[in-house]
Amino acid sequence: MNRLTTPLITAVLMTIGTPLLATEMASSGSVDDLHINNIITHDPSPHNAIIDLAWDSQYISQGRNNLNEGGIYWATAAWQQQDITLYSTVGRADSMAYIEWNLGLEYALPLGDRFDGSLGYQRIQVYGDEECADNELFASLSYTHIGWLTPSIAYTYSTAAAGYFVEASLHSEWALSPQLTITPYVTQGFDVQYVTEAHNGRNHLQLGVEIQYQLSPQLTLSSHISHTLAQQDIKHQVGPHSGNLDHTFAGLHLNWSL
What SUPFAM superfamilies does the record tag this protein with (predicted)? Predict the structure, then answer.
C-alpha cells in the first residue's frame, strides 16, 4: 500500500522543532516523505495534547506521488501520556476525491541518553475512487549524542503487502535564534516488497530543508521544501521511459501543544 507510513507518528511524535518526524527529529527528527513531521515532542509532563494542521503541495510517500493532481490537507490530534502516544490523522486532497484516515499508537523506548527509539502500530483507511486499508507495524531509532547531526533509521511493515520499507536519514539542526531553527536533511529509502514485489532494493533519495519558527511556547509554524530522486525500485515499477520520476514539493505546518 503506497502512502503514508511510520513516522507519521514518529513524526507525529516529534515536534516540529525537531523536524518533521520531532523527537524523531528533536532527537532523531526525520523529515522524510511523511507528511507530518515534527508534530509531537515527548514531554516529561504527565500528559500532552497536540493539534497539527498542515498542507502539502503534493502527497509524496516512498518517493511517489499518490495523487493524480493537486495537494493535500492534513489534520492530526494526538494525546501523549508518559511514553505512550495515541493519534488520529485525516488527510483530504484539495483537487480530487481522496480521503485518508490514520489511527495509531506509539511507545517511546527508554534507551538512555544517546539513543531515542519507538515502536508502534497504525491502521490506515483510504476512501476515494479506489478504497483500501492496511495495518502497519513500525519502529524507529536515532542517535542523539552529536548535537549538530542526527542519524536515524525507520522501519515500516505492511500486513497488506507482507513487505517492509526502510528509511535511513541524516538531519542537521541549526538554531539561528531562540525562535528560528533550520534543518537540512537527506533520506535514503529501501523497498522490500512494500510497494513493489518484483524488485527489492534502493527506492529513492530525498533531500530537503525544514524551517521552524516558535510563535509562542505552545504554537509553532514550520515549512519544508523537499526533492525526491527516483532510484531502481521506482524505475523498475514504471519503466525507464515514463518521463520525469523525480518530485519537488513543499508544505506548511501549524502545531499547537496544549
Answer: Porins
